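Comment thread on ticket #2218

A.B. wrote:
> Attaching the input chain for the structure job we discussed in standup.
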Amino acid sequence: MKTRRISRRTVLRGAGASVALPLLDAMLPSTTQAGGAASRPPRRMAFIMFPLGAWMPYWMPTGQGPDYTLTPCLEPLAEHRKEMLVFGNLACDKANANGDGGGDHARASAAFLTGAQPRKTAGANIQVGVSADQIAAARLGDRTRFRSLEMAMDRYRGTGNCDSGYSCVYEHTLSWRNATTPLPTEASPRLIFDRVFGNGQADSETMARNATRASVLDSVLEEARDLNRQLGGNDRRKLEQYLSGVREVEQRISRADRLPAVNVPRDFNRPTGVPTDLAEHMRLMYDLMALAFQTDVTRIVTFMVAREGSDQKYPMVGVNEGHHTLSHHQNRPANLAKLKAINVFFNQQLAYLIGKLKAIREGEGNLLDNCMIAFGSGHADPNRHSHEDLPILLLGGGGGTLRTGRYLRYPPRTPLNNLWQAMLERFGIPGARFGDGTGALDGLS
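C.D. wrote:
> Ran it. Output below, let me know if you need it in another format.
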């Protein structure tokens, strides 16, 4: 049977819902289907920030290049070592006071992707700089349904004083469209799912529709059956795997919505309408990130694992004290062990995302081959509020532009923005100078 060519932007529609499709063979040029020159899948980038740094002796490897030794914090990523770059001596100078006094947590978030010094204000006159993800979104975001997707584990707070005279917007925001326009994050998997698969809207009508039907997929399955009859065997398997994955995520969100609420401290800013299990919440967010990339509804994602001053507890790994409280560890072994447990937990969840991306076939390889997943913190040792020699990782092949499986150390205080500039170059945006960047980081290829 001859396979019908279909558009890369094809979606399945029905009853107010739309479901984007993964990259199918039938979307590629006919020369590719016949065994000719391969079409290049699109590249994606994600910037994931975790809070409060790490105890660096537990993070930074020994040795350099491909022969480095994994440390306890990086051990959860051992399976993905060949797809990973570890960086040393990258710095976020604009997270330092530079004459502005206290407020390292707010600055660490605000400067992470901008490389710019935030204006110290708790009022409406906020200002920092455009972020790396939004430089990409401004240039290439019109190629997808959404320019970018901003996700977080904490409910967004954009007003008030959160850190030594800095507006809460700094601590809760990674993405800045321009110097004065922050892009709020979304913490609810339900609302993100509705936004991606509900015609771009997550309003009350959408929520009501979801409450009265078993699955968003039910309204598009008939069209999926019609499409399935026109596809080759390989594409039919891809479509079945993808639709099953979408249904599984939706069912997990629905189960989470039915679970009873838990009692939390009054000062704990826990989002509503999300799983009560923290690990399940984080994995759902990573599942949604993978689905967004797989369907090409966006190619640019930011994700805050927690806000920078978070005092979240992690009892699932034996940590019943708040993270921020522990971060002022005073070199006490018990505190350092708990900080290590939190970092290991974060990296275990990251390993879950990387494994998921590797399992999704795309073109002649997998989805991770065409991604750049940056993971790191604007703090190094949080006890000293240090912003030099940061814990930074980059995973994925960048469409064949990255030579991974290495630990790279640069001259002290090399701007973190230089890494973002190198990623933008590989995203098709050369010469993007912004913030405190001094040029694209070399040695990545």
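A.B. wrote:
> Thanks. Noting for the ticket: Residues 333-359 form the longest helix (27 residues).
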